[in-house]
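Incident log, support desk, overnight shift.

02:14 A customer reports that sequence design results differ from what the structure should imply. Their input is reproduced verbatim below. On-call engineer (initials T.W.) acknowledged and began investigating.
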């Protein structure tokens, strides 16, 4: 049964990853590429340095609140609820860490018209990092967060998990039944590992698709034509499943900062002293 489960998931994963590369179904992924939520020009791309601080006139695209801060990546003005405040530094200084916008960073370093702006943008982009083991991302606006989470960090997590599942399943054929580790048969251990990773791959893939669909449906600036054809908004059962798997913060007006990492956050000396009192 476990072999069937792992093989089925491997087949589904292959189909899933190939479909997302096609023009028809890949729109779900490419809809995020142009960052349609942007409400200001990218401040790093202007040729002259801003002479004075410009007041924020735009409203937040992710909530009804007043825009107060700027996304370091796409320069969108957002409110607190439209901003991902980043995950703890402890996770971004450990294994599984990678730079996310490598292409943008390379372009910034090649820039010759305004070296100072290029350097500033390069520094910002080098600090914009994701962790492929924990699925965490540095601070950015909600749009950039979901673009990165769905199609970079979580996408690769699903890849890794699919590979581990398939490899451990294949290893059960290589190792015979006569190898015993910790009083258990190695073949059975590998099958359990395979079952665990195949189920988690499936859950990850469903979560990514559901989150992207809910984000596109909830935000007016996203193109609804990029949604897959099978997604029928009037089908209550299908929408209940999609909403169940989707990240709750993908909805309009919900802050995307994850609170379950709070126990890892470093507190300032003042806050620590106040706590000790
Ligand atoms: Zn952004």
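02:41 Re-run completed on a clean worker. Output:
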């Amino acid at each position: 049964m476990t072999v069937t489960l792992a093989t089925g998931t491997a087949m589904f994963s292959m189909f899933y990853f190939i479909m997302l590369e096609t023009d028809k179904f890949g729109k779900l992924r490419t809809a995020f590429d142009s960052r349609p939520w942007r409400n200001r020009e990218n401040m790093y791309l202007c040729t002259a340095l801003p002479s004075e601080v410009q007041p924020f006139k735009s409203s937040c695209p992710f909530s009804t609140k007043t825009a107060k801060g700027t996304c370091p990546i796409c320069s969108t003005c957002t409110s607190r609820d439209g901003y991902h405040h980043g995950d703890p530094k402890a996770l971004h200084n450990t294994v599984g860490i990678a730079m996310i916008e490598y292409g943008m960073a390379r372009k910034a370093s090649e820039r010759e018209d305004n070296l100072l702006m290029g350097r500033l943008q390069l520094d910002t982009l080098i600090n914009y990092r994701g962790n492929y083991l924990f699925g965490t991302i540095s601070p950015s606006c909600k749009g950039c967060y979901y673009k990165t989470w769905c199609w970079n960090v979580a996408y690769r997590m699903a890849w890794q998990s699919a590979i581990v599942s398939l490899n451990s399943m294949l290893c059960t054929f290589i190792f015979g039944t006569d190898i015993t580790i910790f009083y258990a048969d190695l073949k059975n251990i590998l099958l359990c590992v395979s079952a665990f990773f195949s189920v988690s791959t499936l859950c990850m893939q469903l979560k990514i698709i559901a989150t992207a669909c809910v984000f596109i449906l909830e935000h007016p600036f996203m193109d609804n034509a990029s949604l897959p054809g099978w997604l029928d908004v009037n089908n209550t059962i299908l929408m209940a499943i999609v909403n169940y798997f989707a990240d709750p913060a993908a909805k309009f007006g919900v802050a995307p900062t994850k609170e379950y990492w709070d126990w890892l956050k470093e507190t300032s000396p003042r806050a620590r002293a106040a706590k000790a009192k």
